[in-house]
Amino acid sequence: MNVMQDFEKLGLFYLGREFDVSSGKRLDNLVLYDSRDLVTHAVCVGMTGSGKTGLCLSLIEEAALDGVPVIAIDPKGDLGNLLLTFQSLAATDFRPWIDEDEARRAGVSPDAFAAQQAETWKKGLADWGEDAARIERLRKAAEFSIYTPGSRAGVPVSLLQSFTAPPQSIRDDAELLGERASSTATSLLSLAGVDAPPRSREHTLVSSVLSGAWTAGKDLDLPSIIEQIQAPPFQKVGVVDLETFFPKRDRFDLAMGFNAVLAAPGFDQWFEGEPLDPARLLYTADGHPRVAIFSIAHLGDAERMFFVSLLLNQVLGWMRSQTGTTSLRAIVYMDEIAGYFPPVANPPSKTPLLTLLKQGRAFGLGVVLATQNPVDLDYKGLSNIGTWFLGRLQTERDKARVLDGLDGAAAGSFDRAAVDRILSALQKRVFLLHNVHDDHLVTFQTRWTLSYLRGPLSREQIRTLMAGRAKPTADSRPIAAKAPAARGEAAGDGTSDRLPVLPPGIEQFFIPESAASSSKPLVYSPVVLAAVRIGFSDTKLGVDEIRDVVYAASVGDGPVAVDWARAERLDVGVESLGRSPEKGATFESLPAAASQPKNYALWEKAFKQWLTQNERIQLLRHVDTGLTSRASETEGAFKVRVQDALRASRDKAVDAIRQKFAARQATLAEKLRRAEAAKARESEQSTQQKLQAAVSIGATLVGALLGRKTITTGTIGRATTAARGMSRTMKESADVQRANESVEAVQKQIQDLDDQLRQETQTIATDFDRPPLLEQVTLLPKRGQVSVQLVALGWDPE
């Protein structure tokens, strides 16, 4: 118990005990590794049988016991042994994991071999001061899960979210974003089997697609990347236009390469399961640390490189979103690093791995690499590594390479000859530890692992081991449901949420959604669109019309794929056709005939012939005015235009009649004026004469009555004068009567003339009020008046 307490210390990893190489004996001094030293990273080198796997698993076990989460990449299949922890250490626990071939070689039955293994593990743990209680602590300290990308044996991994936009901190740094896009592009191209160095046009195109979307904060997935390779959202690459830099036909070939990967049997399994989110991989939903083991032994070389690169890039993005720390926050471990971190080549995994080694210390992320062959390591990159675990090496050449690398990492602070002697004398499970944080080298023997080291696990064994353990979370299951559609295959309802990849020479357009269907789930069905400009002209009719029309014909797989006689004329202009679909839409499957570029030329020829024979313009002609309706003019509008013309003609006729009567009206008006003037004059004279006569008569009567008793000559004279006045008054009255008659006569002439004018204008009004007499005119397009603007694939929303 006291021995156990010696190594159960916070922040210290119990790795083993010191070992005297010269005597071949284990010493009592514990080797306790400070977890904070791991932020300067570690490398473990040792040949097969050196105990390298046991040391690395012990390191992961110690991290888990200390609450440090781990992401472990397992190309060989050994790391799944971390889940073989048996608290009771009973033979029945070991039995399902016994290698029966090994038991036969040992000359015992599998049951007996299981019992032997159980006993060996009990003694081994006790010899190193460990027991079942420590195993129980390990099982409770962290959740251990095996992830199997591209397989359902363990927890599947979804790649639908693997191309999500990186954190804002990376998007704001053009250099970091460029590195992320470049390494991701390299891994994608490697998966597709395309040998494309960083400055190739393939690499430039893919990285431009990635960086463009990420800069805008948009997430991508593999199907959408294929779509954007075929139809990039930019028209220039640098200062060169897209078609010159990378012609459409060549882009199609590249897209087909990616599509072949996407359509490969079994690749749909890459779309199910947990998203590749380091935050979720390192911790459970309730904040419990996790040891996430990614078993990739079942994958091909290209798929392994693709996945490892994606995972490292995701970890890099997560790391940069964390705050700085001097403590060990998490570990990224990779077993058998060969091929992923070479000294000369530049695979897609190398760039993110180098960045993690250079920058991980500031964020508390430790990187641990393991390999059998030192020649597979980039020693320039390993200059960033502070801890070296060196076990038995296979050849002198391997030892020389290790010494060269260690010499560079230690900056001349170690004795090369002494290290050479130690490396030559190492036994199994004995390692030389060089730690830049210590002032001396340590040779030690690794402790007994808490996990049962049974060797690589098969997929079936992983499936058995993971049964009942961690499963995809609820929010990741919809991803799996989307897998068939994401690959462009028909879903259960015959639709897909991905556009098909089209060969060069086929353009596609999207008919705008009508308001009536805007509230329904949008489903696009394939049609063949034809846009045409038609001219209609007739000099006699004064017709010179241009009509732009768009037709849509359904397309099928029968003998006659497109029948223009059944085409529908669309109530949209060619300028209204879109280049991209509405968000959230799905697509019906594309008939094979519509994916053949040569068919569109044939359909265009047939369309032009059909159009010349069937397209016509129906016009209206007004017989009286000779006016002809326009192509876009409704009958009502044309009738209004005819009425306007008739009204103008009526007004013109009325003006002519009025002009004809104007002189006579003026003469009669002048005649009336003179007659009325004469009448007024005569009336005035008559009035004055009557007054004068009345005065004269009155004076005579008054004189006779009041002043004179006898009639005198004066009196007789005044009477005579009065009589003559009366006579003149009667004459003036007659003149007034004649003047009145003259006025009435002229007024009668004016009335007659007005009646005549009214009668003639009424005739014009009657003609105007008659319904317009219209006749139909049919015009066919003449030769040379039909110009087909496009015949292309269309998508009709329903």
Entry summary:
By secondary structure, this protein is of the alpha/beta class. It contains 23 helices and 24 strands. Among the domains are: 157-271, no CATH class; 495-616 and 785-797, no CATH class; 635-777.
Number of distinct beta strands: 24
How many H/I helical runs? 23
Strand content: 15-25%
Main β-sheet description? 11 strands, mixed
The residue-averaged pLDDT reads 84
Give the % helix.
40-55%
Shape field: elongated
Cα separation of the termini: 75 Å
Q: In terms of structural class, how would the helical and strand content be classed?
A: alpha/beta
Strand order of the largest sheet: 2-1-15-14-13-3-12-11-4-10-5
Q: Which stretches of 5+ consecutive residues score pLDDT under 50?
A: 472-492
Integer-rounded radius of gyration: 53 Å
